[in-house]
Amino acid sequence: MDEFDDLDTAALQRDIAKIKRAWLNEKNSPELLTYEAAAVESLLEALAEQEKAAREHAHESETNMFLSNVYDMELSRLKYLVSAYIRTRLWKLEKHFMFYLSREDTRGRLSQRELDFAYGYKELFEKHMNAACLSELPDSLKSLSEKKPGLNMVPEPDTGVHVFCQVHDSIGPVQLRTGGESVRMDTDDIFILQYAPIMVLVRSGRVSLI
User: Fold this and answer.
1) Nearest-CA neighbor of 186 among 173, 175, 202, 177?
2) In which region does residue 110 sit, left (phi positive, over 0), alpha (psi from -120 to 50) or beta (all else)?
3) Cβ neighbour number for residue 28 with a 10 Å cutoff
4) Which of 11, 86, 89, 121 sits a CA distance of 20 to 30 A from 20?
5) What is the layout of strands, in order, in the sheet containing 190-194?
6) In this structure, are strands 151-152 and 182-185 parallel, antiparallel, or unpaired?
7) How far apart are CA 40 and CA 23, in angstroms?
8) How far apart are CA 27 and CA 84, in angstroms?
9) Where does residue 174 rank: exposed (0-12), middle (13-18), buried (19+ CB within 10 A)?
């Protein structure tokens, strides 16, 4: 059934692998990472084409009907992967929406839909807080995003948590804390470490979380 063969192309398999890794990283990292827009869009387009082809040719023979059902199961699995990745990101965004909207670099990690969601969520949150209690307070105490020495009204992700990670290329010594010990990281090594020292390596793809 040649119409379905595109599901096994190398490009599609790369997109699937990229989203699988992105999902695991999102599940295990305390911070939101950069949205994998190209891989998600490419995979969704390929899945839509395969679904259309499956429906168009399913009625041509019993073999095609069988293959169509098999592909439907695979397509459903891949759709679940994408939706799980997006749900994980939205859950993390809800927890720290003020933080991610407060800085240009963190806003840059979000998709346009995530940005729209975060701004909408922020508006609803502020309306609720004003109705619940802030309207009764003096103006000096109404801010929900005040930052000053000794006071930070914007919760941030806890990058001090420990994570399991796997190294993808030879990195060499990585310092675990300022002025403290370091650990040598080589290809395929697995560690349990605080997230903060490897944060940049995770963002760059040299280390992934497991």
Assistant:
1) 173
2) beta
3) 17
4) 121
5) 190-194, 162-167, 207-209
6) unpaired
7) 11
8) 10
9) middle
Strand (E) or helix (H) holding 101:
helix 97-102
Q: Is the pTM of this model over 0.70?
A: yes
Structure tokens at 161: 């948590």
Asked whether the beta carbons of 34 and 107 are under 8 A apart, the reply is: no
- At 25, which amino acid appears? N
CA–CA distances in Å: residue 6 to residues 10, 83, 175, 183: 9, 22, 45, 43
pLDDT digits (tens, 9 = 90+) for 160-178: 999 999 999 999 999 997 7
Q: Which two tokens stand for residue 137?
A: 């307070």
Take residue 186 and report the two structure tokens written for it: 């080589």
Q: Are 192 and 163 within 8 A, CB to CB?
A: yes
CA 191 remoteness from chain centre? 21
Q: What is the DSSP string of 15-58?
A: HHHHHHHHHHHHHH-SSPPPP-HHHHHHHHHHHHHHHHHHHHHG
Q: Nearest 5°: phi and psi at 185?
A: -115, 120
For residue range 7-51, list pLDDT tens digits in order: 557 888 899 999 999 999 999 999 999 999 999 999 999 888 888
What is the distance between the alpha carbons of residues 104 and 121, in angstroms, rounded to a whole number? 18
